[in-house]
From TrEMBL:
Ranges of residues in domain 2Fe-2S ferredoxin-type: 1-105
Keyword field: 2Fe-2S, Iron, Iron-sulfur, Metal-binding
Pfam families linked: Fer2
Cofactor(s) required for function per UniProt: [2Fe-2S] cluster
This protein's record includes keyword Iron: yes
Record's protein name: Ferredoxin, 2Fe-2S
Keyword Aminoacyl-tRNA synthetase attributed: no
UniProt superkingdom: Bacteria
GO function terms (MF aspect): 2 iron, 2 sulfur cluster binding; electron transfer activity; metal ion binding
Protein's GO biological process: P450-containing electron transport chain
Similarity section: Belongs to the adrenodoxin/putidaredoxin family.
Amino acid sequence: MISFTVEDQAGNRQRIEAPDDMGLSLMEVLKASEYPILATCGGMALCATCHVEILEGKDGLGDATDTELDQLENLPEYFPTSRLSCQIRIGEILEGAVIKLRGEDVV
C-alpha cells in the first residue's frame, strides 16, 4: 500500500491509501475514492477531464507523453506540474505526493 494526499478544489486535503500491486491508474483510485473525476474517455488521454496538478512529489513521475501534453496544452488552466491522472500508475513514486484536483470539467 502507498499513501498520498488529495486536495479538492475547495482546498480540503485527505490522505488516500491505494494498493501498488494492481496496476491501477491514479484516475481509477480517485474515482473509487468518490472524487468528482469525469474521465470521459475512460483513461485513454483523449479528454483531459482527469486533470490534476502534482503539488509535491512530481520528480519521480517522469515527463508527460506527447499525447498527454497535447491534451494538457488545450486546457484553459495548464500548470508546469499538470498531469492527466489516467496516465499515472499507482506505485512507490506516489508515496507522500500531494495531488490537487484541477480543471473546469470536475463535476
